[in-house]
Write a structure and sequence with these properties.
single chain; mainly alpha; 14 helices; globular
Length: 316
């Protein structure tokens, strides 16, 4: 992570270059989607192979984890489509977004207004809905967060509440958008029920083996990635200081649809995913939080901060 002097946040990238970067593409979106779906199918094939050959428990878990990571990172695909930057065509953004949410246990119809509020009020206490989920402040809350248990409980509660038509708890939903969300969530839950019924009728745990177990196993990996986006950043409206960009391996960037370039995304939310790396060249020097040592480095630094805070408390 690096600290830099304050700069004018209005013009790190000039208008002509920004206009070029904002051009969207169905072809590039479909290419990324095709690669992501191919990764899911390959990982599912590894799970099938492990089961058919009665591989060791360790190999089966590794295959399930690989499948799970390709599924939970469909969240990133949904995120891009919610911004309508994944594709040029609106119908592709809407259709792919809903299916990506289905695979990752999110709902794109709900996430769009929720995430819109997050971008409008990023890191502003009392306004950014993401701040309603408390960030870890010590080892205990850190490992609870990474376990994914709070996420599962939150998603189950939210989906159930919305399926029952209870939208009053979500101030970013209007009467019209609330009705759309209720219908969308009900359809999503119906798909899960149908998949479970098919599995039971077939006498095989397909739903558990190829979706529920992998998603549960890999959820901590997604939690670890998302925790880096704003934790420890400023709680104000400056996109150059309230969001972190994280350097990471290409496979992670690929499956996360370039979301590790998160400060670039927050500063220029209209940029398609494939333009974020280029935007980083111009914006990178102006960013306060850049995790150059990757997610491992970020988490080690976070753990050290817990230790320092504990030492200060003990001395007081």
């Amino acid at each position: 992570m690096t600290d830099v002097p304050a700069v004018d946040p209005l013009s790190p990238i000039r208008s002509p270059e920004l206009a070029r970067l904002q051009r969207r593409s169905d072809a590039r979106g479909l290419l990324r989607l095709g690669g992501h779906v191919a990764a899911i199918l390959v990982a599912a094939g590894l799970v099938t192979l492990a089961l058919e050959r009665r591989a060791s428990f360790g190999l089966l878990v590794a295959a399930e984890l690989a499948l799970g990571f390709t599924l939970v990172t469909m969240f990133a695909a949904m995120h891009e489509t919610v911004h309508r930057t994944a594709f040029r065509s609106p119908w592709l953004n809407d259709g792919v977004g809903w299916l990506a949410g289905l695979l990752s246990f999110y709902n794109s119809t709900f996430y769009r207004p929720y995430h819109g509020r997050h971008h409008r009020f990023t890191q502003l206490p009392g306004k950014d809905p993401e701040l309603d989920d408390a960030k870890p402040t010590g080892l205990g809350s850190y490992f609870v967060e990474l376990s994914g248990v709070p996420w599962w409980l939150g998603k189950l509660t939210t989906h159930a509440r919305l399926a029952l038509g209870r939208t009053a708890s979500y101030p970013f939903l209007s009467e019209q958008s609330g009705s759309r969300v209720v219908r969308s969530v009900r359809l999503q839950l119906a798909v899960y029920v149908a998949a479970s019924v098919v599995s039971i009728a077939a006498g095989q745990p397909y739903f558990v083996v190829y979706w529920l177990a992998p998603v549960a196993l890999a959820q901590p990996l997604l939690r670890a990635i998302l925790l880096a986006e704003h934790t420890g950043c400023t709680e104000d409206g400056n996109a150059l200081t309230n969001t972190r960009t994280t350097y990471t391996l290409w496979p992670v960037r690929f499956l996360m649809w370039e979301m590790p370039y998160h400060a670039e995304h927050h500063r220029y939310p209209a940029l398609p995913f494939f333009a974020l790396a280029r935007a980083h060249r111009g914006l990178g020097p102006h960013l306060t939080h850049v995790a150059r040592s990757g997610y491992a480095g970020f988490h080690l630094g976070l753990l050290r901060s817990f230790g320092k805070a504990r030492s200060l408390t003990e001395r007081a």
